[in-house]
Amino acid sequence: MPRIWSETIAAHRDAVREAAIDATASLVARHGPTGVTMSQVAKESGIGRATLYKYFPDLASILAAWHERHITAHLDRLAEVAEATAPPDRLAAVLDAYAHLSRAHATPDPAALVLHQAPHATRAAARLHDFLTALLTEAAARGEVRADIPPTDLAAFCLHALPAGATLPPPTSVTLTLAALRPGP
Amino acid sequence: MPRIWSETIAAHRDAVREAAIDATASLVARHGPTGVTMSQVAKESGIGRATLYKYFPDLASILAAWHERHITAHLDRLAEVAEATAPPDRLAAVLDAYAHLSRAHATPDPAALVLHQAPHATRAAARLHDFLTALLTEAAARGEVRADIPPTDLAAFCLHALPAGATLPPPTSVTLTLAALRPGP
């Protein structure tokens, strides 16, 4: 198969996947996490039902793909920020970016993910955790971060502490998280 | 009405409420957050349907009462711990108790609360937040806790940072949270 043709097919497949995910996101927003069926997704996206089932066996797999896409976008943004800032400012810049991203609105409905038991939703979360672990390992090696707790535990802490509810301003949760990570006196 | 009689009525009402909540908790555990109806709660608890509706207008209100009972039990335990330990150990003891409690198993299903939009579920959470704010205000006045961030924000941070997922051991999340709260050098 000529490369230009296989690239066209790949682009088409991506477009179908994206359309199915967008339709599902929009349906969940309108009808809630329990009110969405594969038939509605087909209708809303303009994809034939038979075609839709070739891409996604069920609603759970579309929700998982949505979640994956969402986390991947976060990771891309965090990687950009990490590349654009040199140590010792890198860690603070990435944590600040994550605190803001984790509060943005267009997130996959957690109730929908739980309900439909989206099986791969945790895989994307693991990649985010790995990214932060690498960042913290690097910072610990430079003495910017405490060495008495493994970087993987520090990363888990950051992922929970930084979003810190809608009520806490991001600069505050970043200040407190950085204080938690700082090496002891 | 003689006092003994009104006390009997109050105890009876509490028993009916408790039975309805227990039945709902057990049904949600078995059938998931969407598979439960008021009729099932009536049948499972042995309370007549008409009587059940006198206590709770809908499933959301039972879930809210369940959540309220759960948080109240937490608050009772935290208040006990606070009373049993004197400063400067009080704060660490209470945060440690909360880190353990927030990881216990028999919690109201968050998906159920979200789905049924249990209206008063946040009231109980606000009481927990108020309790921690008072504790942190007291600790800040003694110089045990940083004064540059309002105690209400510190409390919000603790509530998110301490549970920190099932993967992080409670002593680690308590150590990190206390480091975040410590006054600056």
From TrEMBL, chains A, B:
DNA-binding region in chain numbering: 37-56
UniProt keyword annotations, A-Z: DNA-binding, Transcription, Transcription regulation
Presence of the UniProt keyword Zinc in the record: no
Organism superkingdom: Bacteria
A Pfam short name: TetR_N
Domain HTH tetR-type: 14-74
Name of the protein this chain belongs to: TetR/AcrR family transcriptional regulator
